Amino acid sequence: KIAVDFLGEASAEQTKVDEAGSKLELVWTSSDEKVVTVNDGGEVKAVAAGEAEIKVSANDGSLTDVCKVTVEIPVDGVKAEESLSLQINGEESKNVNAQLLPEGATGATLSYESSDEAVATVDENGVVTAVANGECTITVTATADGQTWTSETTVKVSTAPTGISLSNASGKLYVGNSANISVYTAPVEADAAVASEVQYSSSDESVATVVGTTEGSAGFTVKGVSAGSAVITVKYQGFETEYSVSVTKYVAPTQSSGKTNSSNSSNKGSVATGGSTVSGGNNSVQTNTGTATGGTTTPAPTTPTPAPAPAPTPTPTPTPTPTPTPAPEGGGIGGNINDVIPGGGTTANNGGDAAPPQDAPIAPPPDI
Fold this sequence. Notes:
Helices cover 3% and strands 40% of the residues. It contains 1 helix and 28 strands. The strands form 9 sheets. The protein has a 4-stranded antiparallel beta sheet with strand order 1-6-5-2, covered by helices on one side. It is mainly beta. The protein has 4 domains: 2-71, Immunoglobulin-like (Sandwich), CATH 2.60.40; 77-159, Sandwich (Immunoglobulin-like); 163-248, Sandwich (Immunoglobulin-like); 261-290, no CATH class. Pfam families: Big_2. Residues 254-368 are annotated as: Disordered. This is Ig-like domain-containing protein. Residues 1-68, 74-151, 160-246 form the BIG2 domain.
């Protein structure tokens, strides 16, 4: 796109040029051939975006005219950074560096928008500023001649550490043993330490040394080498902390043993040589011909639980024998004293008329 502006009154100058054209040769020149060129016939050609002046003059210098030429490249798109990484407590702002396409294109306006201003904001110049940990998208829009083009930039915000700490500031180890120590960054929102960037050193490698790192983290493993004290220094991104360790040699506990050649008994419990106490009926010293097992205390035997007394079987109440009803008094005894006829007499001899029979009284029921 080329715009030509004549400087001065074009019609008057053009008339003079036309009148002199039949007698004079015209000379055409460009003030910047990187922007625009002109040939001997006055044909102007755009080379790049920018501004230049085209000058025409008669070869005898009697006539001169100048025009201003502006060359613009039409917009065909826009691009910006694909991604940005920002850090709170670090590099908190960056520009998305939006550019019109093709290179050198002009004549479009640019606007910017953040998908989440709680994570990052963007101003009218495309400068993005971190707000909090997270991710968001910055959209760049170019507008020209009623058309729009867009480009997106992914922004990731994290928090840079302001210090480091350890899971333990000090500890104790036996020679040959080891312990795992974790490395933490501060504040809690800060990114975890990168294991490959953490440095470790021991003040005395002959006492304690770092033998490796904890898998999947920035922690480390310290091992006791010999008795003594050492300090493990940890460094990360300019921060430093220490772990103090005391190493001692492990001493196994001693075992007791005993032998006796006599025995003694009494009536109050028993004591076994070798340190074992036995509670029971007699106090006796047991003779051991071997070594007791480490002086362990023999537990007292448990007193057996007495068997419950069986409940007595209740004696059943005897049923009383009913008193027989006596026969009524009557006649004399007959010949057979064993055969008594009720009412008197006997079966062998009638001793006389018996008293008239009476109803026998009914005996009362026995007490039960």
